[in-house]
Design goal:
The chain has a 5-stranded parallel β-sheet, with helices on both faces. It is α/β, with parallel strands linked by helices. The protein has one domain: Ribose 5-phosphate Isomerase B, Chain: A (3-Layer(aba) Sandwich). The chain starts with 6 loop residues before the first strand and ends with a helix. The chain is globular. The model has no long low-confidence stretch (mean pLDDT about 95). Helix content is about 45%, strand content about 15%. It contains 6 helices and 5 strands, in the order E-H-E-H-E-H-E-H-E-H-H.
Length: about 150
Amino acid sequence: MGAPPLRIWVGSDHAAIALRQAIVRHLRSGGHSVDEVGPQAGERSDYPDAAEAVARAVAEGRADRGVLVCGTGIGVSIAANKVPGIRAALVHDPVTARLAAEHNDAQVLCMGGRLLALEYAVDLVDVWLQTAFEARHQARLDKITALEAGS
């Protein structure tokens, strides 16, 4: 028996609309509840807007997980990590996707729409979602939380 469906928000700027849409289709086909944030084809948008919307949804408990994509993934990861309580991880391959979940308990996955093929990026989402956090890394996450609190 598989894991229960998740509430996942997926957002992008104008540089990664096609990847955002592919991820949304894939997640919905897997039975997940998906909210989509970002522009339509031909519209421009700034990556911090999508990053904030998705990260806040996760931080406030309106979403279980978030996926963010922009041209490189760098901008959305920086912006999402500014939302208190969020651990957004920029990933490029199956190893970083797995470790983002396993070691860092990242609730938001970030990728570059101009850097990754659509199918490959969708596969990275699956790796991340299917990987459980290993509790032996909790002390490190506690240190991150303390840094965020200014301690």
